[in-house]
Amino acid sequence: MSKIYETQRSPSARLMGSQFVSFDADKGELTMRYTPPPEFASPRGAVQGGLIAGFLDEVMGGALLAVTDDQRLPLNLDMNLSFLRMVPLETITAKGRVVRHGRRVAFLEGELYDKDGNVLARARSTALPTPVPGAEA
Q1: Of the candidates 102, 119, 43, 17, which has an alpha carbon nearest to the alpha carbon of residue 67?
Q2: Which of 17, 58, 72, 79 is 20 to 30 A from 6 (CA-CA)?
Q3: Coil, strand or helix: which one is 136?
Q4: d(C-alpha 126, C-alpha 137), whole Å
Q5: Coil/strand/helix, residue 93
Q6: pLDDT digits over 105-133, tens only?
Q7: 73 has which bridge partners?
Q8: CA proximity to 34, closest of 98, 87, 97
């Protein structure tokens, strides 16, 4: 297993300041850290909501990639978000997991946490598992 989820970052993940933390194969759970740049600020001084979705999309997608041995990335059919607290412009932790997946559909979920362990946002996604672009089929 090449574990590209540990080292390879998309341009958007680099922009978000992503950093691999761990992968728990038993739980199908990937943990990442993100350091949002100042440009992600809303007028309130916290991370803008659409960009919060990006953190969660990235960590849930990475979880599917890890669970499928670097073979599948999600193509989202939907993503539902709950914003529980404002997301500060400081390092945050994200956990994404695969609830269930097959050849045709994957169910994913994720959370964002502040430095004190408070849940900031939650997401769930239904996605199509698709081959990694540029990988051998």
Answers
A1: 102
A2: 79
A3: coil
A4: 23
A5: strand
A6: 999 999 999 999 999 999 999 999 999 88
A7: 130
A8: 87
